[in-house]
Amino acid sequence: MARIPMAELSRYLLSGQLCRHGCLRAQTLLRPIATSSARYMTTQTENKSTAPPAPTLDNQPVPLRKQLKEQARALKSTGKKKKKNTDNQTVPGWELTVGIEIHAQLNTARKLFSSAATSFNDTPNSHVALFDVAMPGSQPVFQPETLIPAVRAALALDCDIQRVSRFDRKHYFHWDQPSGYQITQYYEPFARDGKVMLHSRDGIAAEDGDSITVGIKQVQMEQDTAKTTAQPGEVQWLDFNRVGVPLIEIITLPVIHHPATAAAFVRKVQMLLSSVDACVSGMETGGLRADVNVSVRRTDDSDTATLGTRTEIKNLSSFKAVEDAIIAERDRQIAVLESGGVVEGETRGWSLGSTETRRLRGKEGEVDYRYMPDPDLGPVVIGHDLVSHLADSITGVLPDVEVEDLMKRYGLSSKDALALMLLDDGGRVQYFYNVLAALEARLGDDNTTSTSDRQHALLVANWCLHELGKLTDLSSDLQMTAEGQCRVPSAELADILFHLHQRQITSKVAKELLWRSYRGDLGPNGVTRTIESEGLWFEELPDREYAELADAAVQGEEKVLAEFLRFKEGKSKAYPQGKLMFLVGRMMRSGPEQRMDPASAERVLRARIDEVYIPALESKL
User: Fold this and answer.
1) What residues does 293 pair with on adjacent strands?
2) Model pLDDT, residue 272
3) How do residues 402-441 score in pLDDT, each as one tens digit?
4) Region (Disordered) spans which residues (predicted)?
């Protein structure tokens, strides 16, 4: 194949220029190139005439969560409702088998084979070395520092680190891979024979019992491709900042048999990679992607060693997508076999909000990658001392250890502990620790028992998970850092919770202060001065006035009070808590809400029911 002329190559590379530092930049536009040829596909250049318009109120980008809601609403309106995933983990008479391949971007400062910096939010095509775009004469130079997070990830997955590994070329032609091949480790990966233990708290299917071990065949290093952004008119914009970014590919053994367990495995792997600081980000930001291989066979099949024909579903970008896509593909394959058909080995796709997989290509369309050892790269030799040092550094930081600590030491539920670990790539749990430490410092030495420590932790966890989450639909808007800081400073939230814990402000005022902190409206005054200047201190009603409100709330509610009498007489097994809260709500609406505490209202009302209202009902019988 003839080399593309330099003029055409320059046009292809977004009309950029080669700077003296060896990077491609688009700071100045070259003069138009007169030569053209129909043999070459050109991409639209990002110049003054084709650059996207500046954001306005009318063309703001739509958040992903809003897109998902709109898609779900559209599916509902057309009658294509999804099945709930609670009872469809198995199909009687059939066995599902799933294997998973996970691609995760490593947390490194440099690319895998060039000195260009890794970049995910910078100007497109601003960190591109000569080798990244396959300029003639450029060669790969392995960056040793990229090996550190890769080994940490493999150790977190309990893999055996191979002393010698080698790189191979995987050949294919696509616009996101300028060299025509991807450098990977097909034959001799750097890690093999790992395993991940999943527990019931991780969300595995009930059919898998309390725990299940998923075996990992191998972990290999490889390059990422360019980022493609689709534009109107079948135009694709390419950002070569992502070319050459180091990835690891994690390949499991086909030992998963339930969709929920597959999703739990991907979620657990993301937690593991985040806990050892190996992965840049999670699925929600594109730092981790999953492909799943799905096959089914009849449970009464005498040939237990042979699996059914598998299909591969590419580029699943969320935990829910993993589970839903597996369920849809399993049901499709079963329907084909039950109708007398044959499942074809093929690659299929999945769209967010869809109810079925779609065919991308079959066997006849599969690419022959023509793997071969890369002649420009030598073997990678990993010393035992490095492996030993990195293994020692991750001891005690793996998620199972931290989840157990959150549950036993702080009294959190497994659901809340896992949520803290998952959100913001581990930043949310660090934020929890920061807020809790600041709150304990404010409370001083008056509350040092283990019981009160747990109460403080539960209060902080509730606000870090739920109230903080209500501030925005997009988690990224919180700007959470790995150090556990965000737009709501941990010290300010601790101040809010201190006054709430001391019953100096109401929950409503606390939520308003949280919203102001998120918007940056508290300013230099801080939490306490804002409360003082605006008269937000809580001056609670005395019990006498609570009792008067309770008397007014039960007027005309003899049928409701009769439920409490039935419970006292043993005619009802459950205390009518719902009826009680209904009456508390009436009290809150009729009284001065800014001076009322729902807990105090409930306490006084409960006492009045036992001491006054029920005896009055009994006297009438």
Assistant:
1) 99, 312
2) 93
3) 899 999 999 999 999 999 988 887 889 999 999 999 999 9
4) 41-62
Strands of the 358-361 sheet, one edge to the other: 160-161, 191-199, 211-223, 246-252, 94-105, 288-298, 311-316, 347-349, 358-361
What is the Rg, in whole angstroms, of the alpha carbon atoms belonging to the chain?
A: 30
Per-residue confidence band for 67, with pLDDT thresholds at 50, 70 and 90: low
Phi–psi pair at 216, nearest 5 degrees: -110, 125
For the cut 50, the answer to whether the pLDDT of residue 476 exceeds it is yes
> What percentage of the chain's residues is helix, strand, coil (to nearest 5)?
45, 15, 40
pTM over 0.85: no
Report the alpha-carbon distance of residue 64 to residue 76 in Å, rounded.
Answer: 18
Residues near 47 by beta carbon (within 8 Å), at least 6 away in sequence: 15, 29
| Res 75: pLDDT | 60
**Mean pLDDT for the chain?**
84
User: Whole-angstrom Cα distance, residue 503 to residue 497?
Assistant: 10
First to last CA, the chain: 101
Structural domains of the chain ordered from first start: 1-45 (no CATH), 94-381 (no CATH), 398-533 (no CATH), 543-620 (1.10.10)
Tokens for 179, please give them.
């060299």
Q: What is the 3-state secondary structure (H, E, C) of 312-374?
A: EEEEECCHHHHHHHHHHHHHHHHHHHHCCCCCCCCEEECCCCCCCCEEEECHHHCCCCCCEEC
